[in-house]
């Protein structure tokens, strides 16, 4: 496809970096595949193999090639090791969705918060997207607290919003606007 999107490197605080996926990031894909929730709500394979891990990474590259969105590996700067994923998916009407996951071994270190701040600032300021949205299940307090710390505002509860694993689930709707940066 002509003119693929460019996935840049973005600093996410002092400890993390958002960057394009590399084939040597398969270790975090393997760890994520072992988390039954991550593989349920993302395209991380539920049964890991090196072939499936590499296919996941290639799918992340294809998102930019197909101009669907930006998929970043969240890397620990000190270890130069991927610890999660965050994506920004532009849509119609000046909105974009944000989605993320953090591997179990990296949780509790502020990874999601740092990644959300970096990708939202980039999307709002550099890409000029007026509104970012994300959805979080009400039970996932760690995730919605990270969103709130990153400046996202809870707008409400979307009842029976999404089918996850054959079950309709409620979701909190969060947004961050370009005017929230002022």
UniProtKB/TrEMBL annotation:
GO CC aspect terms: cytoplasm
Domain N-acetyltransferase: 16-179
Upper taxonomic lineage: Bacteria, Bacillati, Actinomycetota, Actinomycetes, Streptosporangiales
PANTHER family: ACETYLTRANSFERASE, RIBOSOMAL-PROTEIN-SERINE ACETYLTRANSFERASE
Pfam families registered for this protein in UniProt: Acetyltransf_3
Keywords tagged on the record: Transferase
Protein name (database record): RimJ/RimL family protein N-acetyltransferase
UniProt GO molecular function: protein N-terminal-serine acetyltransferase activity; protein-N-terminal-alanine acetyltransferase activity
Keyword Transferase: yes
Transmembrane region(s): none
Annotated InterPro entries: Acyl_CoA_acyltransferase, GNAT_dom, Ribosomal_N-acetyltransferase
């Amino acid at each position: 496809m002509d003119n693929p999107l460019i996935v840049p490197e973005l600093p996410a605080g002092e400890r993390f970096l958002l960057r394009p996926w590399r084939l040597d990031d398969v270790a975090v894909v393997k760890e994520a595949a072992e988390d039954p929730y991550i593989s349920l709500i993302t395209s991380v394979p539920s049964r890991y193999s090196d072939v499936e891990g590499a296919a996941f990474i290639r799918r992340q590259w294809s998102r930019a090639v197909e101009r669907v969105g930006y998929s970043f590996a969240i890397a620990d700067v000190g270890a130069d090791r991927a610890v999660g994923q965050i994506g920004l998916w532009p849509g119609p009407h000046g909105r974009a969705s944000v989605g993320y996951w953090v591997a179990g071994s990296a949780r509790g270190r502020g990874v999601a918060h740092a990644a959300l701040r970096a990708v939202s600032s980039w999307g709002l300021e550099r890409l000029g997207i007026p509104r970012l949205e994300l959805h979080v299940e009400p039970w996932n307090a760690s995730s919605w607290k990270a969103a709130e710390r990153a400046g996202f505002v809870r707008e409400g509860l979307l009842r029976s919003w999404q089918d996850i694993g054959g079950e309709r689930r409620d979701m909190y709707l969060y947004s961050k606007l370009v005017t929230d940066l002022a």
